[in-house]
Amino acid sequence: MDKLISNKGSTIQSAVPESYILPPERRPGVVPPCKTIPVIDLQGLDQDPADLIQQIIKASQEYGLFQLTNHGVSEELMQDVLVVGKEFFELPMEEKERFYSEDPYQNCRLKSSVNYDKEKVHFWRDSFRHPCHPLEDYIHEWPQNPARYREVFGSYSIEVRKLGLLLLDLICEGLGLEYGYFGGELSQGLSISINHYPLCPDPSLVLGLPKHGDPYLLTLLNQGHVAGLQVLKDEQWLAVEPLPNAFVVNINYMLQIISNGKLKSADHRVVPSSDAAARTTVVTFISPYMDSLIEPAKSLVNKSSPPLYKSFRFIDFLRPYVTDGTDVEKDPLERFMA
Ligand SMILES: O=C(O)CCC(=O)C(=O)O
Ligand SMILES: [Fe+2]
């Protein structure tokens, strides 16, 4: 519990503790906002679906990440989860305590940094995470305080799941896969993580999250209005500007593998805000079942395009990823190359 940044009280507001200070070569440096990151307006879906699919595929090939506007999840719900998520982190410690755990497989889990006990340097983030689908299996484990938590996160998880499955259908069509390819067990997992990056006395010395790719299928991030997310493209970090009520969507490792490398997982990281504001974000991950078989889709593999990755069970990828954390320079896909 005393590992949580939000539990360290006033001492942490005056100076960054030694254990969070990165060596100079790993510090984030200055990254200006980037204007070229694709913004896709889902309103065009009815008029010209083919064009929209092309935009999604192109962005997923070039950046592995795009922003999505007019996506159908109401502004009210987008705002509500950010407000209630923030309220959760503002609760007294006694309220949050029962969710704190060192066990990476615990369902409802409050934790700090990435892999606190193993990492050399800690990251400036607390997070609270839980599975969401099917809702009735999990909602009774969620917090009852803030009072609106279950209602707001319940509705949000249903809406975001619908949107995520729609995006996967569009990606499926864009890749030329058989209809409904992602509809089954590959997309049955759903979890939400509230990331809280408290105010940092010197953001230039730390990272909120280190460079990583997300290990699932697809991520939909509601990043609110405080900047901090950066994506790596052609060895350059680009800052992803907050757009009101937009989702930042990123391709995950499993989608890179299933598409046989046609789509690319976006490496990203988070820098705590330098505009004197804490940053709270809500991240939704769509993922395969633990025992789902992951492999390049058969229809994308042929003589001239051999499989780039092996077949494996999702848990065999996830287990080392979870245990080793993401504080490593090596590529987690390496062991799964064909
Ligand atoms: O909070 C963010 O902006 C991104 C979080 C993220 O990358 C993650 O939770 O995997
Ligand atoms: Fe991530």
Number of helices: 8
Q: SSE order, as H and E? A: HEHEHHEEHHEEEEEEHEEEEH
Q: Rg from C-alpha positions?
A: 19 Å
Shape annotation = globular
> What do we call the CATH topology?
Jelly Rolls
Give the percentage of residues in beta strands: 15-25%
The largest sheet, given as strand count, sense and whether it forms a barrel, is:
8 strands, mixed
How many domain regions?
A: 1
Task: Report mean pLDDT, rounded to a whole number.
Answer: 93
Cα end-to-end separation? 42 Å
Which CATH architecture is right? Answer: Sandwich
Structural class: alpha+beta
> Which runs of at least 5 residues are low in confidence (pLDDT < 50)?
none
Helix content percent band:
25-40%
Strand order of the largest sheet: 1-2-10-7-12-5-4-3
What small-molecule ligands were found?
A: 2-oxoglutaric acid, fe (ii) ion
| Fourth-level CATH superfamily | B-lactam Antibiotic, Isopenicillin N Synthase, Chain
Regarding CATH, which class? Mainly Beta
Q: Any key phrases for this structure?
A:
eight-stranded mixed beta sheet, binds fe (ii) ion, single chain, four-stranded antiparallel beta sheet, Jelly Rolls, 338 residues, alpha+beta, 8 helices
Walk me through the topology.
Blueprint: H1 11-14, E1 39-41, H2 49-62, E2 65-69, H3 75-90, H4 93-96, E3 109-112, E4 126-131, H5 135-138, H6 149-175, E5 189-197, E6 209-212, E7 218-222, E8 229-233, E9 236-239, E10 247-251, H7 253-258, E11 268-270, E12 279-287, E13 293-294, E14 312-313, H8 314-324
Parallel strand pairs: 1-2
Antiparallel strand pairs: 2-10, 3-4, 4-5, 5-12, 6-11, 7-10, 7-12, 8-9, 8-11, 13-14
